[in-house]
Request: fold
Amino acid sequence: MRPTSRALTIVAIAAAIALPWALILEAWWETALALPLTALLALALDAALAPATRGVRVEASTPELLYVGTDGPLSVRVAAPAGNVGGGRCTVLPETSGPLRDLSAAIVEWSADAEAAVDWKLSATRRGEGRLERIWLLWTGPLGLMAIHHRVEVGRVIAAVPDIAAVRQLALKFAQRDAFFGQKPMRQQGDGSEYRALREYMPGFDHRAMDWKTSAKHRKLMCKEFYTERNQQVVFAFDTGHLMSQPLGGVPRLDHAINAGLQMAYMSLRAGDRVGVFGFDARVRHYAEPVGNVANFAHIQRQMARLEYRAEESNYTLALMDLMGRLKRRSLIVVMTDFVDSVTAELMIDNLGRLSGRHLVLFVALRDRALTGLADARPDSFPVLARAVLAQDLMGEREIVLQRLRRLGIQCLETEPAKLSIELVNRYLEIKRRELL
Reply:
C-alpha cells in the first residue's frame, strides 16, 4: 500500500499552505497544523475503506498449447472482497516469461457482487516453454488517495509449439485408404510381414509381392497382401547444441528439425507405432518414453517444446550410449544433428556405428542452400573464387561423412529445410514398406 500521486499532491498543497500560515500568523499555528493532519487523516480513511487483499478472488484461464504464429486466449476473472460495497476500478497485469510476449495492463470495474473479466491474446516469439508467472492487481480506495498492490502467483506452464497446420495437410495427403465413414479396421492393409490375402496384379503393385507359384496355378499374375507392422518404436534424438542453434533461412536448424519431426511423429502414431523424444548436447537434457495412439500427439508436442537452444558442444558418446541403455527393444532412432567436417564428425560416426548395431538409425542433416550457391558462383574475382573453393571443400567433407555412415548401414537423409518434412515422411514409409525395422 502506498500513496497515489493525488495524495502526494494534496499533502504537498496542505504543507505549502500551512507553513506560511504558521510563520505569518504565529498565534494561529494550531489551525495551520490542522491542514496537513486533515490530509493525513483522509489518507488513513481511504486506506481503511479500500478493499482488503485477503478476500480478492482471481482466476486465470490459459491454453495448454500455444502455436507459434497464432494467438491463444488468456482470460482473467477478478472479484473484490465481500466488504467492498461501493466497487471501483482495478488495474490487472499478467506477468509472463519465456517465449511469451509481454502483455499490457487492463482496467476493469469490479465489485463483490459480480466478477470482472478481461481477455488478452497470448502469442509466442519462438518455440519453447513459457509461463504465466503471476497476476498483478492495483486498486485504490474510494477517495483515490491510497493504492494497494496485490499479486497472485499462478506459475502455469504454456508450451509454445510449432503450428501443426502443415501436419494436418500432410496427414490428408497420406490418408489411409481403408478409412470408411470415420471408421478404421484395427488391422490395416499395407506392407508388412503378416499374410492377409491374394489379389490379382494391377499396374503399380510391388513386384516383390508377386506370388509366382499361385500365378502359375491360376494362369494370371497374383500378388500377396499383408497387414501393416504396428506397435514399433520410433525415437527422435534431437541435437540441441550450438550448431543446431544456428539459423538456416532465418529459422534455427533445431526448429526445422522439430517441425519435420512433428509431422513424422503424427504419421507414426497414425500407423500404430510408438513415439519417444530424446534431447542432448553436452549432456542428456530430455527423455520421454515412447507412447502410442494419435491422442498422445499433444503430449509429443509438449515434449518437443521443452527442447531448448544450447551454446555447448554436443557429446555424442555420452548421449548415444545413454540412449542405447534406455531402449530395451529394437527401435527406429531418428538422429537430427549437424556437423562441419569429417574431422569433427569422427566421434559422431563411431557412436552412430555402435548404435546401429542394435537399432535402425536414420541420420538427418540439413543442406545449406547458401553454401551451394557459393560453390556454384561464377569466379569473377579472387574473393569469390576463394569462397567457392572453401564451399566445395566443405560440401566434399560432408559427402565423405555421409558415405561413411551409409557403409555402416545407417540410413542418411540430407535435404533442404523446405523439403525436409515430406522427404522424412517418405523415408519412414519406405522403411515400413521394406520391413527394415
